[in-house]
Amino acid sequence: MFRSLHMKLVLIMVLLIVSLMTVVGAFLINSVVNYYTQDFYTQMALAFGDEDFIGDLKTPVEGEESGAQSIAHILESYNGTLGVDNRSRRYYVLDGGDASCLAYSDEEQAGGQVTLTRNLSLALNGETGDESDPAVDYMDVAVPIARGDGSYIVYVLDNRSTVKSLNSELFKLIMEALVFGLIISVLLSFLLSKTMITPIERLTEGAERVADGDFSHKIEVASRDEIGVLTGTFNEMARQLKETLEEVENERNKLGTLFLHMTDGVVAFSRDGAVIQSNPAAEDLLGRAIPIGGTENYDTLFSDIAPLQGVLAVEQPGYLDGTRDVDGRSLELLLTPFDQERLGGVLVVIHDVTEQRKTEEMRREFVANVSHELRTPLTNIRSYAETLVDSAGNLPAETEQNFLGVILNESDRMTHIVQDLLTLSRFDSGRTELKLAPFPFEGAVRDVYRAILMDAQRHGHTVRLDLERGLPEVVGDRERILQVMMNVVSNAIKYTPDGGLIQISAGRIGPKVWMEVTDNGIGIPAEDRGRIFERFYRVDKARSRESGGTGLGLSIAKEIMDRHEGTLELVDRPGPGLTVRLTLLVEGPSHGHP
Ligand code: ADP
Questions:
Q1: Position in ligand 1 atom list of the atom nearest CA 519
Q2: CA nearest neighbour of 479 among 447, 517, 516
């Protein structure tokens, strides 16, 4: 019931008023009693300290019948001074010996009996009894008087009825004041609640909205007091909180985007192995869906690499790793625990190392190929040379000439291979600069045609030249482009059985010029077509070697065309034979010198 500030305020005000009125009432009543008592004894001291009055009381009048009556008469005339009103205060004239009542002020009072009080006892012993006793509910003074032969006691008794009625009046007044006070306090507390509690309630409402994530609401600062300061501080706090939250949200979005688009796969697991996060790359690399809260968990996905507990036990920044092949791709997996101090879990990062592996594999193959290619001619040279040495000049001159011819051929081949390798390595390291200059494309094609014509005719081939009219000048390294064209055309001659047909055509499409060399030779089987631009790749090694090929020609040609931002490719057409097509930008490579 008293939960709300409002009710508490009312309660405090009520308690305040009640306690205030109680204290004030008690003080008031107490001081009225004290004042009345003091006033009584002062009045008595004044009256009985008056020499004339005491003298009158003590001196008998001549011929008086009763001393007591005479004293009563004197007292009667002093009623005003003594404050005798016969309601609350009366006087008595008592016998000095036994305190029996001889006369008294109030005629109506029957018997005129008095009680033997402490002061009365003092007077019976001849002393003035004027001591106040707060414990009793009356006040009295007893003065012994010797009059003539008789001894009397003048006794004034006040039963405090005046002060009692005054007190009850006062009490009534205080009660009324209390009721008024209470009414005012309730009204005041309402007023206070309006000025104090309403802003607090507004603040509370604002805080609740902030707690619900609504930062748009600004609480009005209505005053400059502590609540006003608090409201201002609260608004500032909400603003800063909003900014901080926005920053955090921003960071989270950035991380989320990064997580979504990174090429490495990431899957996070809770301590019990449930998936708590995964990115599209992970699903793509592992070739399956990994929904949060789905059936996949650590055990179904990675327990073959390492058990969950094993990964959780790894000390950071350490990690466990493993490999896996999925759909022909080589994956490298790194498993590490995160946030070990709190709940944490396990993070698995998946790297696609297929390309890396392929490159390594190619490098290994290349080294093996180079060694092999160089060893073959070397072995030949060595064996022929040995034979010549062993025969010590006993061989017929013609055979000797033959052998020497083979040795020369083989060493030429080695020189070729080494030269080709050097060319390739210069391309690889970017040390080859193209000498770009405009040259007529048609002229280049015709030059190639003229250069190979004799050789082609030797093999009984028919060579056709089919050029579009008005081929433009192109920007490029003429010597290198000629090298590519020569390579392609001589391949057509080499790999076409004698008496074949070779067609060289060239033209222009938009910003490019093209040249195609078509033969009706042995062609390339489908499974090899993708690889013939690889270094040392030859469909038929023996045939290639016979015709002096190194298996590097097309790789170098492709490299040159790439540098020119042109293309070199096999045209997809049904056999027999092969069509090789090259294209070149008329304006030359856009990136300038490679
Ligand atoms: P090579 O020095 O052996 O000729 P290239 O790099 O020029 O080396 O060619 C690679 C391989 O491509 C050749 O060994 C051959 O098997 C194949 N090839 C190239 N051109 C043709 C063609 N016109 N017809 C058939 N096969 C070809």
A1: 23
A2: 447
Taking alpha carbons only, the member of 403, 282, 387, 383 closest to residue 331 is: 282
Listing DSSP states for 504-543 in one string gives: EEEEEETTEEEEEEEE-SS---HHHHTTTTSTT--SSHHH
Residue 515 near residue 550, CB atoms below 8 Å:
no
Cα distances from 20 to residues 27, 189, 239, 550, in angstroms, run 11, 16, 46, 118
- Per-residue pLDDT tens over the stretch 328-366: 899 999 999 988 777 789 999 999 999 999 889 888 988
Which atom, in ligand 1's list, is nearest to the CA of 487?
Answer: 7
Q: The tokens 């010198």 sit on which residue? A: 593
- b (16+ CB within 10 A) / e for 337-362: beeeeeeebbbbbbbbebeeeeeeee
For residue 329, the CA-to-ligand 1 centroid distance in Å is: 30
- Letter for the amino acid at 528? D
Residue 500 beta carbon below 6 angstroms from any ligand 1 atom:
no
Judge if the beta carbon of residue 235 lies within 6 A of ligand 1: no
pLDDT of residue 107: 64
pLDDT at 591: 65
CA of 449 relative to ligand 1 center, distance in Å: 19
pLDDT at 11: 87
User: Residue 243: CB within 6 Å of ligand 1?
Assistant: no
Instruction: Report pLDDT digits (tens) over 447-461.
Output: 999 999 999 999 999
User: CA-based angle 227:230:236, to the nearest 5?
Assistant: 145
Tell me 325's DSSP state.
E
Q: Which stretches of the chain score pLDDT less than 50?
A: 1, 593-594
Could you tell me the two tokens for 305?
Answer: 């690499």
pLDDT in tens, 153-197: 999 998 888 888 888 998 999 999 999 989 998 888 888 877 777
Secondary structure (3-state) at 467: strand
| Beta bridge partner(s), residue 439 | 474
- b (16+ CB within 10 A) / e for 159-185: ebeebeeebeeeeeebeeebeebbeeb
DSSP per position, 77-106: HTHHHHT--SSSEEEEEEETTT--EEEES-
- Integer Rg of the chain from CA: 65
The rounded Å distance from CA 565 to ligand 1 centre is 23
- Pairwise CA distance, residues 480 & 490, whole Å: 15
What's the mean per-residue pLDDT of the chain?
89
Chain segment 23-80, per-residue pLDDT in tens:
999 999 899 989 999 999 999 999 888 888 888 888 888 777 788 888 888 888 888 8
